[in-house]
Design a protein that fits this description.
Helix content is about 10%, strand content about 35%. The chain has about 70 residues and is mainly beta. It has one domain. The protein has a 5-stranded antiparallel β-sheet. The protein starts with 7 loop residues before the first strand and ends with a helix. It holds the Pfam family DUF1918.
Length: about 70
């Protein structure tokens, strides 16, 4: 997974009734866009250092707008 600051991280839910979680990537701490990422989550407005799993994907702001 590769990202840049300003991209969005989408974490799909394991439950059918729960929506995906999304957050803006504020900082990229890995080499060449690799995790971990500092994320500001939309649902809680908190910031966490996050290692995405296989249920996550990165979108640009433009892709998020069309998602």
């Amino acid at each position: 997974m590769k990202a840049t600051a300003g991209n969005w991280l989408i974490v799909e839910s394991n439950h059918l009734s729960a929506p995906p979680r999304r957050g803006m990537i504020l900082e990229v701490h890995g080499a060449d866009g690799a995790p971990p990422y500092l994320i500001r989550w939309d649902d809680t407005d908190t910031e966490t250092l996050f290692y995405p799993g296989p249920d996550s994907h990165v979108l640009t702001a433009e892709q998020l707008h069309h998602h």
